[in-house]
Design goal:
The protein is of the alpha/beta class. The chain contains four helices and seven strands, in the order βαβαββααβββ. A hairpin with a 6-residue loop joins strand 3 and strand 4. The structure holds adenosine-5'-triphosphate (ATP) and magnesium ion. Adenosine-5'-triphosphate binds next to helix 1 and helix 2.
């Protein structure tokens, strides 16, 4: 069983606010998966969550890096793009072990690219973002029962 909450946002800041609410309930070892088309707001959501977790620096797409690490808040945060990482992680699984470790909070964009890599992690929430036209987005946050 799980509980899903769906909201509609009309600008990026509103999506960031939803993310901040989720972030308040996260603890070390939690993994948050983010699905949705290009430009739907996955990185925007992660940015909002990271701000709430005490990250001050830029939070940008990890598309062209393997992983981003934000270490300036009380809990270290990793930000991954599994689409980009899938091949690399297959060669070197320890890479993901580090990013998805028990002392960090991790946000994973494009989890469907390689769900097998996430086996054994504690998925605290699945976030789905959908385009509704213009700046409107549907944001669904699904949390497994504790
Ligand atoms: N309601 C909204 N919620 C989120 N983002 C919005 C909204 N309205 C406009 N935007 C804009 O849409 C863009 C979303 O880009 P973002 O990089 O977050 O998407 P993404 O899903 O991570 O894309 P990619 O698949 O390329 O990684 C940003 O420029 C953001 O400002
Ligand atoms: Mg992105």
């Amino acid at each position: 069983m799980s509980a899903a909450e769906r909201a509609e946002t009309t600008r990026a800041e509103e999506t960031e606010q939803l993310a901040a609410r989720l972030a308040a309930s996260l603890r070390p070892g939690d993994v948050v998966l983010l699905s949705g088309e290009l430009g739907s707001g996955k990185t925007t959501f992660v940015r909002g969550a990271c701000r709430a977790l005490g990250v001050h620096g830029p939070v940008t797409s990890p598309t062209f890096t393997l992983a981003r690490r934000y270490e300036d808040g009380p809990v270290p945060v990793s930000h991954l793009d599994l689409y980009r990482l899938a091949g690399v992680a297959a060669d070197d699984p320890s890479l993901l072990d580090e990013e998805l470790g028990p002392d960090r909070i991790a946000f994973v964009e494009w989890p469907e690219a390689d769900e097998a890599q996430l086996t054994g992690t504690r998925v605290a929430a699945r976030v789905r973002l959908e385009h509704l036209g213009g700046d409107r987005r549907a944001v669904t946050v699904e949390r497994p029962d504790p």
